[in-house]
Amino acid sequence: MSFRDLIISLTQAACRGDGAAAAACFTADGIYHDCFYGAFQGPAIVDMIARFHRDARDFRWDMHDIVDDGRIGYARYVFSYESILPGSEGRRALFEGVSICALRDGKLASYREVANAAVGLHSLGFA
Fold this sequence. Notes:
Layout: H1 3-16, H2 19-23, E1 26-34, E2 38-41, H3 45-55, E3 56-68, E4 72-83, E5 92-104, E6 107-116, H4 118-123
Parallel strand pairs: 1-6
Antiparallel strand pairs: 1-2, 3-4, 4-5, 5-6
């Protein structure tokens, strides 16, 4: 699978709450480094996707400028959701960032991100 197809499959699976499909985008020992929830490896990626949907709904995750060299992939993204956290219910948060992925055997060996979280957190009412 191309990196473009892989990263879009991951983001679509995460948005619809399909943790198994998200985890399937990774190697067996692959790690998803989430900037809020931390690092999740292998089957634990399913649990991280469940946390997304525990705390929010109505996800949108658009990928732009997707590039790779067969070993490393990059994509700029815009990610948003409606919070269901107490005190932030109904507020929409928006984050812009870059996904940085190590690729191995047609899958993600690691996913990490650098994001501008200040605007999104402020939108949710966090100090």
